[in-house]
């Protein structure tokens, strides 16, 4: 298990992480999501032992990762930067990482390379962005770490490659109980592979939970009333005891984003006798947007002829 | 064996849960038939094994499947009453929606009779 205990990290006096705490259990696929510059890559660098926390602890099974060769070789960090590998070929890169990762498997690398058409004897500088990602990700998998950290894992990969990488990761989870930690802006990927996730914003963790918990606690609610029914304000609807994250009203049709248990919400709003009362699950993308909207992120007001929200 | 939609709003474990119940109710997975292992299904669908295992746990909790240690998971006895109450709930919603837009009870009753005779007719054709 990887644990962050009240970790703070600042660069040049600018706080990037402010006393964050969370755990990643072994065997899970964990997603780090967050706004641009929220500190996702910093978290991954702390996890891989590249950075030392200013205060607090980053622990792997109870022992610090920083400055611990024993722990560091259990973790592999696939950075979103590939410029440092430019003079390497896949072959020389494999030989380099073999020095640090005792479980590095040539056979596994060969098997993966068979599925793609990457030259093993040309420097990575001649590769396209997506090819570089493929190469580094496969090296990371072949190193057989217990924890594989992927920064912007699927960035630059085409749909076929994304599917292949997903299959490879799942295969490693099944065969080796490998833990996968992915940072990305692309929430579809988190949805497809992860079982839990943390949302990072403004140097803090907004939530860190299983995806199912996150999703089952937030819904889109569509309500419609007969046209002669009285209009409700957001405050009046909140009086039912519901936390309303988003409120939109067009004539007698309401679009809300609410928190709470599905059945309870159904009961509560059916009592108002709407003609339509539909609860729709939210996508992770929507959860991301509405959670951050409440915190005042991304609330730009666009000029529009017809205002749709109030 | 199971089709899932990775882009769907419905969580993957919920899709699997519903699919297995649907197949069991329709008789495609009769009582006692073995389900693929969590491992196998995760591999086939290339989804997170923890997701598959969550679906199986919920199915077991709700008595749809049972597991024998070392042998795997099997379809249990489907409780007809539960299935009926779910389906009737859906029927109620559909009927209410229809009445709300002015379809009267007689029209609905006629429709059920037509559906019923069609259903019986189809059953006879299958037998012959």
Describe the structure.
The complex is a heterodimer of chains A (310) and B (128). Chain A has 310 residues and is α/β, with parallel strands linked by helices. Chain A has two domains: 2-210, 3-Layer(aba) Sandwich (Rossmann fold), CATH 3.40.50.300; 217-294, 2-Layer Sandwich (Alpha-Beta Plaits). Helix content of chain A is 33%, strand content 29%. Chain A has helices at residues 40-47, 69-72, 90-98, 106-115, 129-142, 159-176, 187-193, 211-216, 234-238, 262-270, 284-294; strands spanning 2-11, 14-24, 29-34, 55-60, 63-64, 75-78, 147-151, 179-183, 196-201, 204-210, 218-224, 243-250, 253-259, 276-281. In chain A, the strands form three sheets. Chain A has a six-stranded mixed sheet with strand order 6-7-8-3-9-10, with helices on both faces. A four-stranded antiparallel sheet of chain A has the order 2-1-4-5, covered by helices on one side. A four-stranded antiparallel sheet of chain A has the order 12-13-11-14, with helices on both faces. In chain A, α4 (106-115) packs antiparallel against α5 and α5 packs parallel to α6 (159-176). The longest helix of chain A is centred in the middle third of the chain and has 18 residues, at 159-176. The two termini of chain A are 45 Å apart. Chain B has two domains: 12-75, Arc Repressor Mutant, subunit A, CATH 1.10.10; 80-127. In chain B, 23% of the residues are buried. The mean pLDDT of chain B is 88. The chains are: A alpha/beta (310), B mainly alpha (128). The interface between A and B is medium-sized, with 25 and 17 residues.
Topology overview:
The complex is a heterodimer of chains A (310) and B (128).
Chain A: E1 2-11, E2 14-24, E3 29-34, H1 40-47, E4 55-60, E5 63-64, H2 69-72, E6 75-78, H3 90-98, H4 106-115, H5 129-142, E7 147-151, H6 159-176, E8 179-183, H7 187-193, E9 196-201, E10 204-210, H8 211-216, E11 218-224, H9 234-238, E12 243-250, E13 253-259, H10 262-270, E14 276-281, H11 284-294
Parallel strand pairs in A: 3-8, 3-9, 6-7, 7-8
Antiparallel strand pairs in A: 1-2, 1-4, 4-5, 9-10, 11-13, 11-14, 12-13
Chain B: H1 12-25, H2 38-45, H3 49-61, E1 65-68, E2 72-75, H4 80-100, H5 105-127
Antiparallel strand pairs in B: 1-2
Helix pairs in contact in B: 1-3, 2-3
